[in-house]
Write a structure and sequence with these properties.
This protein is an alpha+beta fold. The chain contains 3 helices and 5 strands; from the N terminus they run ββαβααββ. It has a single domain, classed as Beta-grasp domain (Ubiquitin-like (UB roll)), CATH 3.10.20.30. The chain is about 20% helix and about 20% strand. The longest helix has 8 residues.
Length: about 110
């Protein structure tokens, strides 16, 4: 199992255990992490799984595809740390990764 550390916009931490090879979005939605909806089911057609990946972990990820960058163009509060969690697969290298949730807007 892979450990993921999710942080709410207020800084509250929730630790999730995820099977290796699933998307970070799937791990979050299965664990009911507020702020990660995954409305498209991981089909890269929305940005409801937008999160921030801490700089220490970004170098361990494949760069975002052009399609992911296009989806992020329509997201709110995008920074250089922004990624769509549906595009990140869990692996042993990502064990302990921090994922920060953007401000939740209703």
């Amino acid at each position: 199992m892979i450990t993921l550390r999710f942080f709410s916009p207020e800084g509250e931490e929730q630790i999730v255990q995820a099977a290796e090879g699933i998307s970070v979005m799937t791990a979050a939605t299965q664990s009911c992490i507020p702020g990660i909806n995954g409305d498209c089911g991981g089909n890269l057609s929305c940005a409801t799984c937008h999160c921030y990946i801490d700089a220490a972990w970004r170098g361990k990820l494949a760069p975002p595809s052009d399609m992911e960058l296009a989806m992020l163009d329509g997201a709110l509060d995008v920074t250089e740390d922004s990624r769509l969690t549906c595009q990140i697969r869990t692996s042993a290298e990502l064990d302990g990764m921090s994922v920060r949730i953007p401000p939740i807007r209703y």
